[in-house]
Amino acid sequence: MGITEKIIFICIAELLYVFLLYPLLLKILAFFFKKPVRLSEDYFPTVDIVIAAYNEEKLIEGAVRSIYEDSYPHELLKVWVGDDGSSDRTAEILTLLQKEFPSLTVINLPRTGKNGVLNELFKRISGEITVFMDADCLIIDKSLHRLVAPFQNSTVGASIGRLKFQRNNSNAGTQGESFYHRLEHFMRSQESEIFSIVSSLGAFYAVKKEYILPLPNDSVCDDYLPLLRVAQRRKRILYSPSAHIVEIREKDTSYEFGRIIRFTSGGLAALREIKSLLLPHYGWVSFFLWSHKILRWISPFFLCLLFIASAIAAFKSPFIMILFSVQAAFYTLAFLGWLAERNGRESSVLKLCYFFFVMNISMMIGIYQFLQNTSTDSWEPSNR
Predict the structure, then answer these.
(1) Which residues pair with residue 126 across a beta bridge?
(2) What is the distance between the alpha carbons of residues 169 and 251, in angstroms, rounded to a whole number?
(3) CA atoms of 296 and 7, how far apart (whole Å)
């Protein structure tokens, strides 16, 4: 076997493991190593909810009202919103909401970036549990209680809810993200049953107050480093799929392109802060991080290597010729998906191929930005 064939074999093995074998392996492991957490219905800790907002005049009122319309006891709730120097009516709307909801506190800040806003809010929280929420989301009734319920178990340090979508379009970004979250839902469920998940959901998650520390810089992913700190303390991060939140902001493919770049770069920067988690003595967490995150982040490079190597060796065997032809056909479909997107044509298959291509390009750029130590914490709301 020549060097080109060896490269092809390694690339196929890596990609099969990431996209097929690891999810199947999780299902088997969860069957043998399931570690359930017993929950009681009468557990109601004090909760601080923190929201970082920038130019959210269309959405912030709905987000805040959904908190107070939830059935969680208001006397146990404090809501903190940091306004990151908004140039629209966000601050004005929040001022009016403060008069209606006494436990809502608004901190007006100059434009400083999301990490800086969260650090200011961290100085003020005092409840047993800190819940992080995005300004473009609505809490479904009783979801706050379901999100914090796992904390009655002393082994739990964080809990993550499930994101649902309210979409009025069918672009590649929307369809691709929906498919991606279904796959993530499956893997999070299995990892959580075994021990602890290693992925994040910035829109809605909770962390024990004792594990909340300032974010060290603008490069780290604000919704990932707090979870890694919990894992570092050998506490479980549980998936709570019955704690629903609805994301109402419309997204397009360019928005998803930027989001994946930011999370890849910021996620790697966060992991760099606690790189010891990758060592074998962290057990399940280390295994999940390598399988679910590291190998997935670098899989675009294996895709590129596979395409180049199979193109070079295409005439050496019928198998490699077929392999190259399948790849060429897929990338052609991705290009047609881009054309369909531009021309407003409906084709789920083409758009999913296009989204997969965009997602992998985004991760490659994210890795490049990580290596360049580029800041990731400033954000702009979608204009849609």
Answers:
(1) none
(2) 9
(3) 18
pLDDT tens series, the chain, 384 aa = 789 999 999 999 999 999 999 999 999 999 999 998 888 889 999 999 999 999 999 999 999 999 999 999 999 999 999 999 999 999 999 999 999 999 999 999 999 999 999 999 999 999 999 999 999 999 998 999 999 999 999 999 999 999 887 655 555 555 556 677 788 999 999 999 999 999 988 889 999 999 999 999 889 999 999 999 999 999 999 999 999 999 887 667 787 888 899 999 999 999 999 999 999 999 999 999 999 999 999 999 999 999 999 999 999 899 999 999 999 999 999 999 989 888 877 778 888 899 999 999 999 999 999 999 866 555 566 543
**DSSP letters along 32-57, please?**
HH-------TT----EEEEEEESS-T
Q: Is 205 helix (H, G, I), strand (E, B) or coil?
A: strand
Distance CA 371, CA 125 (A): 34
Number of residues in the chain? 384
Q: Compute CA 89 distance to the chain's CA centroid, rounded to the nearest angstrom.
A: 28
Q: Are 225 and 237 in contact (CB under 8 A)?
A: no
Parallel/antiparallel/unpaired status of strands 77-84 and 104-109: parallel
pTM: 0.91
Given the DSSP bridges, would you call strands 156-165 and 204-208 parallel, antiparallel or unpaired? Answer: antiparallel
> How many whole angstroms separate alpha carbon 172 and alpha carbon 67?
31
CB 160 within 8 A of CB 198: no
